[in-house]
Amino acid sequence: MALGSLVKTLQNIMRNDAGINGDAQRIEQMTWLFFLKIYDAKEEEWEFHDDSYESIIPDRLRWHSWAPDAKDGNALTGDELLDFINNDLFKTLAGLELAQDAPLRQVVVKAAFTDANNYMKDGILLRQVVNAIDDAVDFTEYKERHAFGEIYETILKDLQSAGNAGEFYTPRAVTDFMAEMLNPKLGESVADFACGTGGFLTSALKLLAKQVKTPAGQELYSKSIYGIEKKQLPYLLCITNMLLHDIDNPQVFHDNSLEHDVRDYRHKEGGQFDVVLMNPPYGGSEKASIQNNFPAALRSSETADLFLALILYRLKKNGRAAVIIPDGFLFGQDAAKVEIKRRLIEEFNLHTVVRMPQSVFAPYTSITTNILFFDNAKKSEGVWFYRMDMPDGYKHFSKTKPIKSEHFNNVRSWWTSREEIEEDGNPKAKFYAVEELRAGSFNFDLCGYPHEEEEILPPDELIRDYRARRAALDAEIDSKLAQICEILGIEA
Asked: What phi and psi, each to the nearest 5 degrees, are found at residue 193?
């Protein structure tokens, strides 16, 4: 079977199964099967290079023991296959007993199946899915495994149309651009504390792979990334992604980054990183017990704010970060947002804000987002704001017309020249000194989009959009009033 048609073939088979409801479940079903087949191929490699290697998976549950169909009538199928999957494979792998010092390549097996599900109820259709996967790709062949990496990208893109699962996928053009601007070096540690499907990590790995020239370099490459993901589906997708990129012991953990006291990281070995690349979840609300893991000045109910605060504690001295943040953070005037922005320019070096056009994350959301670039090398001397306009011929991005790498070419050219640009009387690129930002009450809503067409949004996004606009106007009015009161010498 052609690799390009594999995903569609699997989806078509699963559409006939009454147990699967929607794309998100189809993707999850595919993913644990891909994981088992890929892991089995990796184990063949590990066994070849290490005579003492012992699999953490009981032999009867390894892919090669039950999945291949020799067409002799002995392959598990129907109710027998369902019983094996549900009552043996899933229960055994989720209940694996691991040594306290178990290597990560063993830990990920248990973590992958702890909250995973087999949704299929038709064992004959499940056998067809297993056969399609087993026949399509030979993961022991290096070229085929890496060719499948491209097909895997289609699965990740499909998340965008799989309901709320779209939040776990950042367009590859965006992750590649951000990684390129930070330019990670072999030997540096790269982290994403809400890593989703591993898009930022794989973008960094592509750059690091080019630097590998020796076995020692390969060792550094294999230890370079660190990720945490709270939800099961993206976690499993990320682990599989790492195995495809030859990370045999992926330091990717099924956990919630916000459930740990941030003050501990500055004194904890391995708690800080050279490079942080992130698209934090936004729009979420965190309970008081989570907020208490942060100093009082940084406590916020907004998830994105807390992740930004977390980065301030987990970025090494001289480390650098690139983070996607919604517009609401730029103009937000609540105490936590203002304090984070103050620290970004008075204690860290926030140097660049790239304002991306609306619909970059369509169809998942139309909320406008921005990229903050900062480091922990010195205090900021000022911040460059750059507005990235919609490409010619585009009214908006969509699933069929997504953002592409070349759409960042103007940003790349400007990045090195750093010249102020004005269009139609409005700044497109401009440098703002720290004093200006402080005087403006840390309102970072600068170099925005002056002539945007009105777009009809879904009701929930329309409400969020109007609330965001109202907050921006309130912030602007408060700033003007404060300036007037200061001039008149009266209290605001």
From this structure: -90, 0
